[in-house]
Amino acid sequence: MSFSLDGWTCKLHQSYFDLMFGIFRTLLALAVVFGHLGSVPHIGAYAVFGFYFLSGYLMTYIMHHTYGYSLKGISQFCLNRWLRIFPIYYFSATLSLILVLLLGEEFTRSFHENIGFPQSTDQILRNLFLILTIHTDTRLVPPAWALTVECFYYLCIGFGLSATPLRTLIWFMASVTYTIYLIIGGASPSYRYFPVAAASLPFSAGALLYHFRQLKVYHSVVLAGNNLLVILILTITFNYIFGVYLMQSPRGVCFYINLLLTGFVINNLCERKKVFSIDKNLDSIIGDLSYPIYLLHYQCGLVVSYLASGWQLSRGLFLLAAVPIVIASGFLMARFFERPIEKIRNKIKR
């Protein structure tokens, strides 16, 4: 089966649901948890840019393979993205408010300075409509600033920013140029990570990978195998350790090498029906935990902190106590809250 889009013919050699990204997404979410609750330095930033890269690839993929660029397709895409992002976000924000009421704002802000009651109309509206930055004083879901970035690029991709290879290549080259400008200009690591514009590089790289995979020469140069995947994972790990602990440069060259390595991992996973002995159904179940884990880990950590307030836990023990609760909460959220919404989203896709 094939279809033509702006003169390019794309072969539908696999469905969106065949892609083996579930475990990868959940590992990225757990890396964020380790960074936030375990104080593992800078691992969260590496993981978030990995999420952005994957989102750039997947959103471009489903626009081509599921929705298309008609007015109806774009509308369905936007509605589906809203259903994916906002209901569970509102649930997580409500849970934060309940915890503030039960534990007291003084305690919740001592755990994380941004968890508390919104202090102004502006803060209420920003949390309600998910228009957040890292500088928003009150964020009921602290890592939700990255969702604002995601939503911005969802809209850009939905309205055709990555619709054609040429357009995507121009976007990618502009992103590279902007990143080089920031580095040469001495922009701070935070300025090269948190703002919406800084995320253009990983999103455009992910979109470009999609178009690269459609080239006729692609399948003659790509390799995939369990040994290659293990090598890639070990290389990413070494690259992170080398950049953060040895070079003492968390947003230096290794940070951008991480994007290239992430691209190789995503490309490798695209070629698979299984990761080792795990089939796509189990991979999907594990992947469903990623978004709830990302949204709920601070709330879970807050509860653990309150229950263990007299125990003087080290960071390692605190993380060890919190991670099972984070995973269990993610499972319950995915099973009883996300799954009914997923049925609605699947109807929209069809």
What's a concise summary of this model?
The protein has 350 residues and is mainly alpha-helical.
Would you mind describing this structure in some detail?
This protein has 350 residues and is mostly helical. Helix content is 68%, strand content 3%. The chain is built from 13 helices and four strands. It has helices at 22-37, 43-67, 71-103, 105-111, 121-129, 145-158, 165-184, 200-212, 226-246, 253-270, 280-287, 290-307, 315-349, and strands at 2-5, 8-11, 274-275, 278-279. The strands form two sheets. It has a two-stranded antiparallel sheet. The protein has a two-stranded antiparallel sheet with strand order 3-4. Strand 1 (2-5) and strand 2 form a beta hairpin. It is globular, with a radius of gyration of 20 Å. The model is unreliable at 1-17 (pLDDT under 50).
Write the layout of secondary structure elements.
Blueprint: E1 2-5, E2 8-11, H1 22-37, H2 43-67, H3 71-103, H4 105-111, H5 121-129, H6 145-158, H7 165-184, H8 200-212, H9 226-246, H10 253-270, E3 274-275, E4 278-279, H11 280-287, H12 290-307, H13 315-349
Antiparallel strand pairs: 1-2, 3-4
Helix pairs in contact: 1-2, 1-11, 1-12, 1-13, 2-6, 2-8, 2-10, 3-4, 3-6, 3-12, 3-13, 7-8, 9-10, 12-13
